[in-house]
């Protein structure tokens, strides 16, 4: 046996609304019927009272009541008045209840069926009673002559006539009720058809389950997800996006340009055209941004996905450093082979003393920097970085010098200062300095003169690495052309470079890594006229320093 599928949410609402509209219409119809019937009976009572009172006060009735044959005078009068007044009967009787008139002549002379006691006491009395014409609403009024009751007048309207009047009103009411029900049902169907399109025919349980899946997926996905509405406000944000962008819990409904994000990132989020795998920097992270505009009805929004590129960028930097080390070792191996051939050739020529002097001089030149770095920098990662960068600089014709006041003992750097960030900071600064010094020495800078105006200056990069009690100082100065003071703030912006497109990320990463460690980066003019970058990183948390 196949279990019927639960009706869709739109179908359930449609059935509920139809039942509700039908119940309301039926209730209104019943209330109107009872009200109309009550009003019809009250109208009949007032009409019968007015007719009976008018007849009882008529002089012709009083005169006929005193005559010897009242029926002969009153019967034509009563029947004519009954038809004109629209009542069922007008009965004029003697004080003892004997009828003088009646719509059915056969009942003349018989006793009146109803209460006449109140009328005999001089009061006008109305009641519902079963008479010869059926149930009726009737009124009995006394006929006075000089203070004496000489007769009684009864006027009434049958319940059947009242029911006929109410039936006509109810028929019209039912027509209106039917039209209201049809109109309400049509409106309900149209509304629910639209609701069915929006809910895709799903029932309440399916919608609830879909919402649960939606919430679970949003919280489980590590990538950031943002949805912007047509007015570029945050419509939806998951936990990953909050973490990547550093957003709080109250961002839903806020415009993107009020979140305090970097200007390039804000521009990417507000752009109307799609963005694919754009790299943007926040104060702490490198993120890859993809945007896709969506159109739904008249509302235009944007779906934004964010991926954390920080770790990958750091690994890429380390890979570049390792690649540089490999190239430097390959070059050193090539140079060592050339020097070895030279030594062998000197020995073969019988010049052993010159061979020894040549080999010793080469060893001393290579050993000086190694001893200086190893003796001053106890941190193995920084020592290895400096030795590798020195070899790379030598290949570019640049001398890398470690300042005399450099000193970092092993174990001084805390775990809160990752070695990866130090490699990012010092490696990028040295690479930029070596490039600048080499270009200035050969006259190939962006602001340098042409190749014929080679300047006879020695290319050199001076590195200072010093750890004081509470601070790590990293300073890199070069003999390059320097940086225009007007560009002092722009050099740290992603994409700024004097080497053309595709460059300009290194200094932005330096500032980001320094920011993560609560440090600072400053650009100034070096002692040799080139650029000098100074990075200061705290070695202790702020509360400990305080």
From TrEMBL:
Species of provenance: Streptomyces lunaelactis
PANTHER family with a match to the protein in the record: SENSOR HISTIDINE KINASE DCUS, TWO-COMPONENT HISTIDINE KINASE
Intracellular or extracellular location(s): Cell membrane
Cited Gene3D superfamilies: Histidine kinase-like ATPase, C-terminal domain, PAS domain
One GO location term (cellular component): plasma membrane
InterPro entries hit by this protein: HATPase_C_sf, HATPase_dom, His_kinase_dom, PAS-like_dom_sf, sCache_3, Sensor-like_sf, Sig_transdc_His_kin-like_C, Sig_transdc_His_kin_SpoOB
Lineage: Bacteria, Bacillati, Actinomycetota, Actinomycetes, Kitasatosporales
ATP-binding as UniProt keyword: yes
Pfam family, one: sCache_3_2
EC number: 2.7.13.3
UniProt superkingdom: Bacteria
Catalysed reaction equations from the record: ATP + protein L-histidine = ADP + protein N-phospho-L-histidine
Membrane-spanning segments: 12-34
Protein name: histidine kinase
One example GO MF annotation: phosphorelay sensor kinase activity
EC class of the enzyme, as a word: transferase
Membrane topology recorded in Swiss-Prot or TrEMBL: Multi-pass membrane protein
Entry keywords, A to Z: ATP-binding, Cell membrane, Kinase, Membrane, Nucleotide-binding, Phosphoprotein, Transferase, Transmembrane, Transmembrane helix, Two-component regulatory system
Methyltransferase among keywords: no
Histidine kinase domain boundaries: 294-541
